[in-house]
Specification:
Elements lengths: L6 H33 L2 H10 L4 H5 L5 H17 L5 H9 L7 H12 L6 H24 L4 E3 H6 L8 E9 L2 E9 L5 H19 L2 E5 L15 E4 L6 E3 L14
Parallel strand pairs: 3-4, 4-5
Antiparallel strand pairs: 1-2, 2-3, 2-6
Length: about 260
């Protein structure tokens, strides 16, 4: 009884549930990407559109994310209404606020689709953004606790940097024997697909501009992915405790933006 009343036990159990949840979402997104094109075939779109007014359960039986299905159906509806392709701005605004849709029945079903989707849609985007912000604040708090001087993403943008990690350390640190100039916070589980995408679109760019860095996947990652340490990208699933402050004699702010 004492074990199950322990807060640490519940926290540990909860973290494992989150990791399982993120793994499920990752697998579902992989599957969606493989089958996405066939759902956008003209005959498929027309079939979905003719059936949209039955029930939400009929829509989900098509084996496509409810929010993505809602987008297909709304796009088709607006094409018929306006006689042409709707703008992304209009489409996104109606997905976020279904009351803007002229057809009340369609608006109701679009709303049901967006709130019943755990992977895609405006509600999921909002939750992901909030969780991401929460962990960025957590990272800043951890750095302040260790009295480490840093620049955050907003400060770097003011300085003219367009694509930056969440944190640039004004004085580099060493973590497990590896130099770290920057830190990126990821409030997600690091699976092979997402990590490969981040490497190509973010991490190597940061490495080229600012030197070696650290990525924190707060909800864990596949251990085999932590294979770029010698090349300058270190992975952790928590804020490091074994931090060594490097000599700052030659350090005067973050490295300069390349010409």
């Amino acid at each position: 009884m004492e074990l199950y009343g322990n807060k640490l036990y519940y926290k540990h159990y909860y973290n494992h549930l989150l990791i399982v949840h993120y793994c499920y979402i990752s697998l579902w997104k992989k599957r969606t990407k493989r089958t996405f094109s066939r759902h956008h075939a003209p005959e498929a779109i027309e079939s979905y559109y003719q059936r949209y007014c039955i029930t939400l359960y009929c829509i989900t039986s098509v084996d496509l994310s409810p929010a993505l299905m809602a987008r297909i159906i709304l796009d088709r509806f607006l094409q018929g209404l306006e006689g042409g392709m709707p703008s992304k701005t209009v489409l996104n605004s109606m997905l976020k606020e279904p009351s803007l849709i002229p057809d009340q029945m369609l608006a109701k079903h679009i709303y049901q689709c967006t709130i019943n989707d755990c992977c895609y849609g405006p509600l999921v985007d909002c939750i992901k953004h909030a969780i991401g912000q929460e962990h960025e604040v957590l990272l800043c708090d951890k750095l302040k606790e260790r009295n480490l001087s840093f620049l955050d993403e907003n400060q770097l943008r003011v300085m003219g940097y367009d694509k930056t990690p969440d944190i640039i350390l004004e004085v580099p640190i060493a973590v497990e024997g590896h130099i770290v100039h920057w830190i990126e916070s990821k409030a997600s589980f690091g699976d092979d697909h997402s990590h490969r995408t981040y490497l190509n679109e973010q991490f190597w760019s940061y490495w080229n501009r600012f030197g070696p860095g650290l990525v924190i996947y707060w909800y864990g990652f596949i251990e085999e992915l932590d294979c770029q340490r010698d090349r300058g990208i270190l992975l952790k699933d928590c804020f490091p405790t074994d931090i060594v402050l490097c000599n700052a004699a030659q350090q005067d702010g973050p490295p300069q933006e390349p010409e």
